[in-house]
Amino acid sequence: MKPSPFHPVQISLGLVVWSVWFVALYAGLAVACERAPQAPGAGGPIALNVGFGLFTLATAGLLALSATACLRALRREPERPPRERFVARVGAAVHLIALAATLFIGVPLLGLPPCV
Amino acid sequence: MTRPHTPEADRVHADFDAVWGTPPGWRTLTVVNHTTIGLRFMLTGLAFFLVGGLFAMLVRVQLALPGLDVLTPELYNQAFTMHGTVMMFLFAVPVMEGLAVYLLPKMLGARDLVYPRLSAFGYWCYLFGGLILLSSVVLGVAPDTGWFMYTPLSSVPHSPGPNPDFWLIGITFAEISAVSAGVELVVAVLRTRAPGMSLDRMPLYAWYILVMAMMIVVGFPPLILGSILLELERAADFAFFDVTRGGDPVLWQHLFWLFGHPEVYIIFLPAAGIVSTLLPVFAQRPLVAYTPVVLAVLATGFISFALWVHHMFTVGIPQLAQAFFSAASMLVAVPTGVQVFAWLATLWLGRPLWKVPMLWLAGFLFVFVAGGLTGVMLALVPFNWQVHDTQFVVAHLHYVLVGGMFFPLVAGVYYWLPHFSGRMPSARLGRYGFWLVFVGFNLTFLVMHWTGLLGMPRRVYTYEEGLGWDLPNLVSSVGSFVMAIGVATVLVDIALHFRFGRRATPNPWHADTLEWATSLPPGAYNFASLPEIDSRHPLWERDGLADEIAHGKHGLPGIAHGRRETWGVEPLSGRVREIVHLPGNTLLPLVVAVLLAAVCIGLLAKAYLPAAAFALAATVGMLRWSWENGAHPRAAPDATTPPDHPPLHSRTCDGPGLWGMNLTLLADGALYLSLLFSWFYLWTVAPAWQLPAGGAARGGGLLLASAVLLTVASITLRRLVLRLRQGIGAGTAGGLAAVTAAGVASAGLLVFALRDPRLAPTATAHDALVVFILGYNLFHCALAALATALQVARVRAGYVGAGMPYEPLVVARLWYYAAAVAWSSYAALGLFPTAWRAT
Q: For B320, which of A82, A101, A113 is closest by C-beta distance?
């Protein structure tokens, strides 16, 4: 069930999604390295990095879509009370902050091997 | 007292004081209102600050010159451990919470916090927990393994004495107050604001406190869990952190820093809230960028939970994982930077008045920005490795914590002094105090950065001559004494102002927020009537508002019904939804806290039978406490409301109690998730993880049966609540009794599981965690059953029924939680091991 762009839950939703992504990334890396460790010294794009990279991009895509939904709703419904427009505006920004945080923290996936 | 002295205002005040007033003599111990409790928190925090400062001075004396033996190595270890512990746990967080407890209802236009008895209980737990910890100093067994209590140094083989036990038990007891205040502050911000104060009109301080309180609710439980596990290991030889038995000392580090890094922001955010409140007043214009600052506070609250591993960069975590935390540690500087630029822009665009509070704010900006910059340096893994465990880190954390918390706190104390005394602070002595502290602080800690870069480790009790550390250490020690003189000057100034300070006029700083619409000092009820709010700056935009409030011209002006009350509002819009009635003065919080303190002392003395007896007595005390709720005549002497008013919250289905239960379960859930993290962590990472003989999963079948029973009971309770909401009261007591029986049966199954002779919690970390998880489930089954049994009695007493479905609704949340925990525990203990071995 998708909450309305004007629902107060939008104030934190983007960063909650980011938190879940971060925990999954860190825990997933630990488990993956325990169950399928990469050979030491292996370089270049490798399966775990690609997998976590795709997961990161998917999360970023979800956050971008949610931010867009809030922004569109703001344009579509200008008659909403100021307090509800405040929620949608903050919600859009929070999703964008979470998007930026996801991409920035995901950057090391491009250059570092996973298990050394 | 500065308030209008017209006959009408005097009559209103006398009427309110009869219901809300503080009783004299020993009965002050019964006081529960937030003004008194907030002041007690702050005064107690000040006392602990002086004690913590004394330990700091001992450390600096010892390090002033090479080869000194003012302190023995053992006493030195105790001094630095107690300094860090007292300052972090007994000063910084409680004082910030105390200030929030004092201010928040006043700023929000409410008469009190939502759970006054919980406020009082939290205070007593804080006081007794702190005294238990400090008693270890008198007894010569103070904790001596550092404020973060790392294992295995704090485990029995290396610390056989009771020193760490005082830390683990005393601090955990004191943390009850932090979590309870966290829950209360969140609900207060969301549910008891002035009518019309929608989220976008809320004072920025309330946003800061909302985020800080949520961080406490989620951030403190990992440490509480870690402390319980470590104390169980020390007292009962359970194997959680012992490598030879399948545990891992690094697990303690994870649990500690899962709490420890957010803690820094838990301290900083309310201080930043003070800055965002004071700066516009002295700049004489609204803060620039309200919405971006709200966003920055939210972002800081979340991102600060993704930094904890930067305290552990040297323990051997894979580089990629370190890079995630390094990136997050750099990232958190961005929202902090947004706030700093908002403050600077406000100063730039305003007409700043350089009063004493502004000096401290300027000092804050200088010191905190410097600390933030060294924080970004420490976020970089290679640099972090180089300076790990050196004096550089000590200097950095003091720049962040003293700069980010102490400077704004003193600014706030000066600013709100008229609230506490009705008098204005002096201009001259306050300035001397500021400059002494500012110069002394920078002498001490700026130089300490270089001491660290020269290679001096932290926590060494002395050093040899000729290493290049002599002069910087001497400068730091001299600086620390200058700073101490500065602190003493500030304290003398504040003490003198109570006698010699000029009488404060109403709203003496020409501030914009509602706390200045009270009398100075304020009465226990804050406002004789509760105004409707239509802007972010009510006192700047409505002249005469304070007079109107005092004359009872706004909402809820009557007190003839004899109950304490304030508005309950919708969280987003601030629209009035119900009248929240509040309990009056009572000794129960103190009694329960004393009994729990006795439990702690019993545990420290290893007198487990008396400890159990006191725990039982404390449970009885809590049941008595919860008896005087809802429809009980002591909770609301007169339950009628005028026809044009909303109902009392206890006659609705969505009062503050429901929100409090949800938040308490969120804290409980954070603890449980930390427990599951421990379980999966050891399975994945423990260097010598051991499965029990045969490798069979323990407790799975009985947990499954317990989960089924709890689910059936939860569904039954939900149906009973629905019937109550439809006005059908028949059969409620019988239904609740059946639900209670299911809880007892479920608990019985878990007791049976715990009696499995194959379980050996002292032999392997695996079994130790299985026992703990089963025990956690057992506790929740028993708690749910007990709470429901109380409801049966309340139905029979006429306090719960068709018109009053509120309490079973609250209790139902506990059942849902217990059922969810049982199912997830079954998955973790019963299903996961098989799946893990199969892959």
A: A113
CB B144 within 8 A of CB B77: yes
For residue B750, give the 3-state DSSP assignment.
Answer: helix
Q: What tokens appear for B21 in the block? A: 């007033």
pLDDT digits (tens, 9 = 90+) for B164-200: 999 999 999 999 899 999 999 999 999 999 999 999 9
Q: Which two tokens stand for residue A61?
A: 């895509």
CA distance B229 to chain A (A): 22
Mention every residue, 6+ apart, whose C-beta is less than 8 A from residue B349. Answer: B283, B285, B288
What is the average pLDDT across B527-553? 93
Cβ contact B338:B292 at 8 Å: yes
> Which segments within B608-649 are labelled E, that is strand?
none
Residue B251 in contact with residue B385, Cβ under 8 Å?
no
**A4 is written with which tokens?**
């309305």
Give how far B828 is from chain A: nearest CA, Å: 15
Q: Answer whether A83 sits within 8 Å of B685, measured CB to CB.
A: no
Q: Assign residue B694 a region: left if phi > 0, alpha if psi is -120 to 50, beta otherwise? A: left
Minimal CA separation from B317 to chain A, in Å: 8
B320 interfacial to chain A (CB closer than 8 Å): yes
State residue B578 phi and psi, 5-degree precision: -160, 170
Q: What's the gap in Å between the CA of A80 and the closest CA on chain B? A: 12
For residue B201, list chain A residues with Cβ-Cβ distance below 8 A.
83
- Between CA A15 and CA A2 the distance in angstroms is 16
Determine the 3-state secondary structure of B494 from DSSP: helix
Supply the ipTM of this predicted assembly.
Answer: 0.95
What is residue B447's three-state secondary structure? helix
Could you tell me how many CB contacts below 8 A there are between chain A and chain B? Answer: 95
Residue B570: closest C-alpha in chain A: A8
Residue among A13, A16, A22 with most chain B CBs within 10 A, to mutate: A22
pTM score of the predicted model: 0.96
Q: Which of B198, B302, B323 sits opposite A83 (nearest CB)?
A: B198
Q: Which two tokens stand for residue B585?
A: 């003065």
- Amino acid at the residue B674: S
- Report CA B90 to chain centroid distance, whole Å: 11
